[in-house]
Amino acid sequence: MVFNNSRVVIFLEPNQLRYQIIEAKTRKEESHNKNFIDIAYQDLADIDRFIENLKQQVPRLTAIELKLSDNLVRYQKIAYPDIELTATELVTYVQASLYKLFQQSDNLLFFDFVSLLSSPKALMVAVCERDIVNYWLDLSRKYGLTLLFVGSHFENNSFNFLPWRAQKAKQHQFQILIFVVSLIGMMTCYFIYLLINAQSDFDHYSQQLSEQQALQQELTLKLAGYIPNPSPSQKQIEQSLQLFSDKLPATIWLNLYSYEPPKIKITGGSINYVDIINFNQLLSANHAVKKSQVKNIENSHESLLFQMDIELNE
To answer: What residue ranges are annotated as transmembrane (predicted)?
Structure first.
């Protein structure tokens, strides 16, 4: 179980190391001088055998914290940039300054830095040999251990030479990628919804147009069947139906037609308010119409219902 795991804290000096086993169940912080065991070594092979023996003696050992002595770490202060930099730009600024500070290429060093609360503002930069960190990374992988920390403490500041900044940047990039993918997914779903909704509206209005065309054909057939010499009322009915057949826009359909001399009342629907008003104006401007008036317009689901009173000239 993870609660039974342990870690080893190692203080590394040239030709000597001190270590302490920290039990996970207690998680007490190690002391700098108490309970540490001193081990002398001559080369890296001695360190390898030490870790191998330690792993056998403490089967629950899973992690290493490596603290480097000041003999293995170098420190320099550097002025803080005059311009405001992002975290990534600040890392690049420090990396570009390593050769000037330590007379070594950044390919040979691992570095870390902290901001100092001083005036003027400055950065404290710490470096160690890249071979040291790489060796302990390889050693931890060899024995299945996690390297939690490789660094030092100087003037109340902690420096960690593991590539935690790069890992943090990768995590940030991954979070941005997840956000962008999620946003694209949501936008795609929204556009699909709009497309489906638009197709549904198109089918609905197409059906209403077909019904209007069928009604228009029916009215035309009725007009053809009227008897000769019709009465004045019949003439007005015929005249009004012919007028509707000629003037009715494609976006308006009639649901009800009633004739109560001298007025004609119609009820219909449309998808556009302006088309209803224009239709009324077309009728009012016709010489056969004495008066045309929209009595009522109201919303009904996805269309408009209207009522009109029309009075024809005798």
So the answer is: 174-196
